[in-house]
Protein backbone atom coordinates (compact mmCIF):
# COMPACT_ATOMS: atom_id res chain seq x y z
CA UNK A 1 0.00 0.00 0.00
CA UNK A 2 1.32 3.40 -0.97
CA UNK A 3 -0.17 6.89 -0.84
CA UNK A 4 0.21 9.79 -3.24
CA UNK A 5 -0.76 13.21 -1.90
CA UNK A 6 -1.71 16.11 -4.18
CA UNK A 7 -2.62 19.59 -2.95
CA UNK A 8 -4.99 21.86 -4.85
CA UNK A 9 -7.25 24.88 -4.79
CA UNK A 10 -10.37 23.62 -6.58
CA UNK A 11 -12.67 21.00 -5.03
CA UNK A 12 -14.83 20.94 -8.14
CA UNK A 13 -12.00 19.64 -10.33
CA UNK A 14 -11.06 16.82 -7.95
CA UNK A 15 -14.65 15.71 -7.30
CA UNK A 16 -15.37 15.81 -11.02
CA UNK A 17 -12.37 13.59 -11.77
CA UNK A 18 -13.31 11.13 -9.04
CA UNK A 19 -16.98 10.77 -10.04
CA UNK A 20 -17.01 11.24 -13.81
CA UNK A 21 -15.29 8.01 -14.81
CA UNK A 22 -17.06 5.87 -17.40
CA UNK A 23 -19.84 3.69 -16.07
CA UNK A 24 -18.65 0.94 -13.78
CA UNK A 25 -15.16 2.42 -13.34
CA UNK A 26 -15.92 4.61 -10.30
CA UNK A 27 -17.80 3.66 -7.15
CA UNK A 28 -18.48 5.87 -4.13
CA UNK A 29 -17.62 3.78 -1.07
CA UNK A 30 -18.07 6.30 1.72
CA UNK A 31 -18.31 9.96 2.64
CA UNK A 32 -17.59 11.69 5.91
CA UNK A 33 -19.48 14.84 6.91
CA UNK A 34 -20.81 15.24 3.36
CA UNK A 35 -24.58 15.31 2.83
CA UNK A 36 -24.63 15.11 -0.98
CA UNK A 37 -23.06 12.74 -3.46
CA UNK A 38 -24.21 14.77 -6.45
CA UNK A 39 -21.07 16.05 -8.11
CA UNK A 40 -21.87 19.77 -8.02
CA UNK A 41 -23.52 19.83 -4.60
CA UNK A 42 -20.69 17.78 -3.11
CA UNK A 43 -18.05 20.21 -4.40
CA UNK A 44 -20.09 23.14 -3.09
CA UNK A 45 -20.20 21.59 0.38
CA UNK A 46 -16.43 21.21 0.42
CA UNK A 47 -15.96 24.80 -0.76
CA UNK A 48 -18.41 26.17 1.82
CA UNK A 49 -16.49 24.67 4.72
CA UNK A 50 -13.15 25.76 3.23
CA UNK A 51 -14.44 29.35 3.08
CA UNK A 52 -14.09 29.50 6.87
CA UNK A 53 -10.35 29.88 6.26
CA UNK A 54 -10.05 32.02 3.11
CA UNK A 55 -6.34 32.63 3.76
CA UNK A 56 -5.51 28.94 3.11
CA UNK A 57 -4.46 28.84 -0.53
CA UNK A 58 -4.66 25.07 -1.00
CA UNK A 59 -7.48 23.59 1.10
CA UNK A 60 -7.84 20.54 -1.18
CA UNK A 61 -5.99 17.34 -0.32
CA UNK A 62 -6.40 14.67 -2.99
CA UNK A 63 -4.94 11.39 -1.73
CA UNK A 64 -4.63 8.21 -3.78
CA UNK A 65 -4.21 4.91 -1.92
CA UNK A 66 -2.85 2.19 -4.18
CA UNK A 67 -2.53 -1.52 -3.42
CA UNK A 68 -0.75 -4.47 -5.00
CA UNK A 69 -2.65 -6.34 -7.71
CA UNK A 70 -1.89 -9.56 -5.82
CA UNK A 71 -4.15 -8.34 -2.99
CA UNK A 72 -7.15 -7.62 -5.25
CA UNK A 73 -9.29 -10.56 -4.12
CA UNK A 74 -8.90 -9.67 -0.44
CA UNK A 75 -9.63 -5.97 -0.90
CA UNK A 76 -13.40 -5.88 -0.79
CA UNK A 77 -15.15 -2.52 -0.65
CA UNK A 78 -15.68 -2.87 3.10
CA UNK A 79 -12.01 -3.62 3.74
CA UNK A 80 -10.87 -0.70 1.61
CA UNK A 81 -13.21 1.71 3.42
CA UNK A 82 -11.90 0.49 6.76
CA UNK A 83 -8.29 1.00 5.66
CA UNK A 84 -9.09 4.43 4.21
CA UNK A 85 -10.80 5.65 7.38
CA UNK A 86 -7.93 4.41 9.55
CA UNK A 87 -5.50 6.21 7.28
CA UNK A 88 -7.53 9.44 7.52
CA UNK A 89 -7.76 9.21 11.30
CA UNK A 90 -4.01 8.66 11.72
CA UNK A 91 -3.22 11.52 9.33
CA UNK A 92 -5.32 13.90 11.43
CA UNK A 93 -8.30 14.04 9.03
CA UNK A 94 -10.80 12.37 11.30
CA UNK A 95 -12.76 15.57 11.99
CA UNK A 96 -13.26 16.97 8.52
CA UNK A 97 -15.01 16.28 5.22
CA UNK A 98 -13.84 13.48 2.96
CA UNK A 99 -15.14 11.51 -0.01
CA UNK A 100 -13.84 7.99 -0.74
CA UNK A 101 -14.19 6.64 -4.28
CA UNK A 102 -12.88 3.37 -5.69
CA UNK A 103 -11.66 3.31 -9.28
CA UNK A 104 -11.31 0.15 -11.33
CA UNK A 105 -9.60 1.54 -14.43
CA UNK A 106 -6.21 0.03 -13.54
CA UNK A 107 -4.92 -3.46 -12.87
CA UNK A 108 -4.22 -2.67 -9.22
CA UNK A 109 -6.92 -1.71 -6.67
CA UNK A 110 -6.85 1.94 -5.66
CA UNK A 111 -8.90 4.62 -3.93
CA UNK A 112 -9.22 8.34 -4.50
CA UNK A 113 -9.97 10.42 -1.42
CA UNK A 114 -10.95 14.09 -1.52
CA UNK A 115 -10.17 15.71 1.84
CA UNK A 116 -10.93 19.16 3.18
CA UNK A 117 -7.91 20.61 5.02
CA UNK A 118 -10.29 22.91 6.88
CA UNK A 119 -11.80 20.91 9.72
CA UNK A 120 -15.39 20.86 10.89
CA UNK A 121 -14.36 23.23 13.67
CA UNK A 122 -13.01 25.76 11.16
CA UNK A 123 -9.37 25.12 12.04
CA UNK A 124 -6.71 24.33 9.46
CA UNK A 125 -5.41 20.77 9.68
CA UNK A 126 -1.62 20.72 9.70
CA UNK A 127 0.17 19.06 6.81
CA UNK A 128 3.58 19.22 8.46
CA UNK A 129 5.78 16.23 7.58
CA UNK A 130 2.75 14.68 5.92
CA UNK A 131 4.69 12.59 3.41
CA UNK A 132 6.90 11.10 6.11
CA UNK A 133 3.87 10.41 8.31
CA UNK A 134 1.93 9.00 5.38
CA UNK A 135 4.71 6.58 4.45
CA UNK A 136 4.95 5.34 8.02
CA UNK A 137 1.16 4.91 8.32
CA UNK A 138 0.96 3.05 4.99
CA UNK A 139 3.56 0.58 6.17
CA UNK A 140 1.75 0.05 9.48
CA UNK A 141 -1.58 -0.59 7.74
CA UNK A 142 0.04 -2.85 5.15
CA UNK A 143 1.51 -5.02 7.89
CA UNK A 144 -1.64 -4.98 10.02
CA UNK A 145 -3.88 -6.15 7.19
CA UNK A 146 -1.30 -8.62 5.86
CA UNK A 147 -1.02 -6.89 2.49
CA UNK A 148 1.83 -7.11 0.03
CA UNK A 149 4.74 -4.83 0.81
CA UNK A 150 5.78 -2.65 -2.11
CA UNK A 151 9.00 -3.44 -3.97
CA UNK A 152 9.94 0.19 -4.45
CA UNK A 153 10.34 2.22 -7.61
CA UNK A 154 11.92 -0.65 -9.55
CA UNK A 155 8.56 -2.45 -9.59
CA UNK A 156 6.63 0.49 -11.07
CA UNK A 157 5.36 0.07 -14.63
CA UNK A 158 7.06 2.97 -16.43
CA UNK A 159 4.89 2.67 -19.54
CA UNK A 160 1.78 3.73 -17.63
CA UNK A 161 3.32 6.90 -16.24
CA UNK A 162 2.48 10.33 -17.61
CA UNK A 163 3.56 13.93 -17.09
CA UNK A 164 5.70 14.78 -14.07
CA UNK A 165 5.50 11.24 -12.70
CA UNK A 166 7.08 9.96 -15.91
CA UNK A 167 9.87 12.56 -15.73
CA UNK A 168 10.52 11.86 -12.05
CA UNK A 169 11.01 8.15 -12.71
CA UNK A 170 13.21 8.87 -15.74
CA UNK A 171 15.46 11.00 -13.54
CA UNK A 172 15.45 8.30 -10.83
CA UNK A 173 16.47 5.62 -13.33
CA UNK A 174 19.21 7.84 -14.77
CA UNK A 175 20.64 8.54 -11.30
CA UNK A 176 20.71 4.84 -10.44
CA UNK A 177 22.57 4.15 -13.71
CA UNK A 178 25.12 6.96 -13.46
CA UNK A 179 25.84 6.96 -9.71
CA UNK A 180 27.73 3.62 -9.44
CA UNK A 181 30.14 4.79 -12.17
CA UNK A 182 30.78 8.23 -10.64
CA UNK A 183 34.03 8.73 -8.71
CA UNK A 184 33.34 12.44 -8.21
CA UNK A 185 30.61 15.03 -8.74
CA UNK A 186 31.94 15.96 -12.17
CA UNK A 187 31.45 12.37 -13.37
CA UNK A 188 27.94 12.33 -11.92
CA UNK A 189 26.82 15.64 -13.43
CA UNK A 190 28.34 14.83 -16.83
CA UNK A 191 26.66 11.42 -16.89
CA UNK A 192 23.24 12.96 -16.22
CA UNK A 193 23.78 15.69 -18.82
CA UNK A 194 24.29 12.97 -21.43
CA UNK A 195 20.74 11.84 -20.62
CA UNK A 196 19.26 15.33 -20.87
CA UNK A 197 19.22 16.07 -17.14
CA UNK A 198 20.78 19.19 -15.64
CA UNK A 199 21.90 19.50 -12.03
CA UNK A 200 22.23 22.47 -9.72
CA UNK A 201 22.88 22.86 -6.02
CA UNK A 202 20.95 24.72 -3.33
CA UNK A 203 23.19 26.63 -0.93
CA UNK A 204 22.61 28.08 2.52
CA UNK A 205 21.92 31.80 2.20
CA UNK A 206 24.87 33.64 0.67
CA UNK A 207 27.35 30.94 1.66
CA UNK A 208 28.87 28.08 -0.34
CA UNK A 209 27.44 25.47 2.03
CA UNK A 210 25.39 23.03 -0.05
CA UNK A 211 22.00 22.16 1.46
CA UNK A 212 20.30 20.35 -1.40
CA UNK A 213 20.28 19.35 -5.03
CA UNK A 214 17.83 19.99 -7.89
CA UNK A 215 17.42 18.00 -11.10
CA UNK A 216 15.77 19.39 -14.22
CA UNK A 217 14.48 17.69 -17.35
CA UNK A 218 12.14 19.02 -20.05
CA UNK A 219 11.70 22.27 -18.06
CA UNK A 220 10.46 20.41 -14.97
CA UNK A 221 12.50 20.68 -11.78
CA UNK A 222 12.56 18.32 -8.81
CA UNK A 223 14.57 18.41 -5.60
CA UNK A 224 16.56 15.25 -4.98
CA UNK A 225 14.39 14.16 -2.05
CA UNK A 226 11.27 14.55 -4.24
CA UNK A 227 12.75 12.04 -6.68
CA UNK A 228 13.51 9.59 -3.87
CA UNK A 229 14.98 9.75 -0.40
CA UNK A 230 18.08 8.00 -1.73
CA UNK A 231 18.55 10.92 -4.14
CA UNK A 232 18.97 13.66 -1.54
CA UNK A 233 22.25 15.59 -1.66
CA UNK A 234 23.60 14.05 1.55
CA UNK A 235 22.99 10.48 0.38
CA UNK A 236 24.33 11.08 -3.12
CA UNK A 237 27.43 12.75 -1.70
CA UNK A 238 28.02 9.81 0.65
CA UNK A 239 27.69 7.36 -2.27
CA UNK A 240 30.13 9.33 -4.42
CA UNK A 241 32.64 9.47 -1.55
CA UNK A 242 32.38 5.69 -1.16
CA UNK A 243 33.01 5.25 -4.88
CA UNK A 244 36.06 7.51 -4.66
CA UNK A 245 37.44 5.61 -1.67
CA UNK A 246 36.99 2.25 -3.44
CA UNK A 247 38.83 3.57 -6.49
CA UNK A 248 41.73 4.77 -4.31
CA UNK A 249 41.98 1.31 -2.75
CA UNK A 250 42.05 -0.32 -6.19
CA UNK A 251 44.76 2.08 -7.37
CA UNK A 252 46.90 1.32 -4.31
CA UNK A 253 46.58 -2.41 -4.87
CA UNK A 254 47.63 -2.08 -8.49
CA UNK A 255 50.69 0.09 -7.78
CA UNK A 256 54.05 -1.79 -7.96
CA UNK A 257 56.17 -1.81 -4.75
CA UNK A 258 58.80 0.93 -4.74
CA UNK A 259 61.49 -1.35 -3.29
CA UNK A 260 60.79 -5.01 -3.98
CA UNK A 261 62.15 -7.36 -1.33
CA UNK A 262 64.38 -10.26 -2.31
CA UNK A 263 63.08 -12.75 0.23
CA UNK A 264 65.79 -15.35 -0.43
CA UNK A 265 68.61 -12.90 0.34
CA UNK A 266 66.76 -11.58 3.38
CA UNK A 267 66.40 -15.09 4.87
CA UNK A 268 70.07 -15.91 4.13
CA UNK A 269 71.35 -12.72 5.79
CA UNK A 270 69.14 -13.27 8.82
CA UNK A 271 70.29 -16.89 9.23
CA UNK A 272 73.95 -15.89 9.02
CA UNK A 273 73.43 -13.17 11.62
CA UNK A 274 71.73 -15.58 14.03
CA UNK A 275 74.51 -18.17 13.63
CA UNK A 276 77.09 -15.47 14.27
CA UNK A 277 75.39 -14.52 17.51
CA UNK A 278 75.20 -18.07 18.85
CA UNK A 279 78.81 -18.81 17.90
CA UNK A 280 80.13 -15.97 20.08
CA UNK A 281 81.54 -16.96 23.51
CA UNK A 282 79.40 -16.15 26.50
CA UNK A 283 81.16 -14.07 29.15
CA UNK A 284 81.40 -15.62 32.61
CA UNK A 285 81.14 -12.42 34.55
CA UNK A 286 77.52 -11.50 33.68
CA UNK A 287 76.01 -9.50 30.81
CA UNK A 288 78.21 -8.44 27.93
CA UNK A 289 77.08 -4.91 26.97
CA UNK A 290 78.74 -5.10 23.56
CA UNK A 291 76.89 -8.34 22.76
CA UNK A 292 73.54 -6.79 23.72
CA UNK A 293 74.24 -3.83 21.48
CA UNK A 294 75.16 -6.16 18.62
CA UNK A 295 71.98 -8.22 19.06
CA UNK A 296 69.88 -5.04 19.10
CA UNK A 297 71.61 -3.94 15.90
CA UNK A 298 70.71 -7.25 14.25
CA UNK A 299 67.07 -6.95 15.31
CA UNK A 300 66.87 -3.42 13.95
CA UNK A 301 68.36 -4.58 10.65
CA UNK A 302 65.80 -7.39 10.39
CA UNK A 303 62.93 -5.03 11.18
CA UNK A 304 64.06 -2.55 8.55
CA UNK A 305 64.13 -5.27 5.90
CA UNK A 306 60.62 -6.37 6.82
CA UNK A 307 59.33 -2.83 6.32
CA UNK A 308 60.91 -2.44 2.88
Polypeptide structure, described:
By secondary structure, the chain is of the alpha+beta class. The chain folds into 3 domains: 2-150, BirA Bifunctional Protein, domain 2, CATH 3.30.930; 158-254, no CATH class; 263-307. Helix content is 44%, strand content 17%. It contains 10 helices and 8 strands. The strands form 2 sheets. Strands 1-3-5-4-2 form a 5-stranded antiparallel beta sheet, with helices on both faces. Strand 7 (210-217) and strand 8 form a beta hairpin. Helix 5 packs across helix 6 (185-193). The longest helix has 22 residues, at 233-254. The radius of gyration is 34 Å and the shape is elongated.
Predict the CATH topology of the largest domain: BirA Bifunctional Protein, domain 2
The CATH level-2 architecture of the largest domain is identified as: 2-Layer Sandwich
Distance between the termini: 61 Å
Number of strands: 8
Poorly predicted runs are 282-287
The secondary structure category is alpha+beta
Please tell me the overall pLDDT.
85
Taken together, the total number of domains comes to 3
Descriptive key words:
single chain, alpha+beta, 10 helices, BirA Bifunctional Protein, domain 2, 17% strand, 308 residues, 3-stranded antiparallel sheet, elongated
In short:
The chain has helices spanning 11-19, 39-50, 77-90, 130-144, 163-178, 185-193, 224-227, 233-254, 263-279, 289-307; strands spanning 2-8, 26-32, 60-66, 98-103, 110-116, 198-203, 210-217, 220-223. The chain is α+β, with helices and mostly antiparallel strands.
